[in-house]
Here is the input.
Amino acid sequence: MSQNNYSKIKTFDQRGWVKENLSYKKDPGSWAWILHRITGIALIGYLFLHIYSLSPLTQGEAAFNDKMKSFTSPFFMFIEWLLFAFVLFHSLNGIRIVLVDWADGAKYQKSLYVWSWIVGVVLFIMMGIVMFSYEIGLLAK
Here is the structure.
């Protein structure tokens, strides 16, 4: 090859890759891909946090029960509800991916994405009602 052919090869500018990747217009499939990765990483992080939060078991029942009391506060219930949102999105999007890949669902990809959001929001609200019904007085006697 001559020197001329090498000058036509586009090189990758490592310094500008973040700007370049954030600047292009994303479609729903791109957002689904990005959010699936973010929720997956967050759930892996939660797994380690969950294992760590069970560490008072080695100190006896009283230490464990004392630690668990801190997790029943409204703040932690809200965080747990957000965790449910991550689990819900990751699982519904995973089902959508399976349907697109294995069930010839590529032509229905966008509608499956919209339906996964609709089902997810409904289930998220229903879980919020179940989790906080006592606090908001729905089940108070």
About this structure: The two ends are 84 Å apart (CA to CA). Residues 27-132 form a domain with the 3 helical TM bundles of succinate and fumarate reductases fold (CATH 1.20.1300.10).
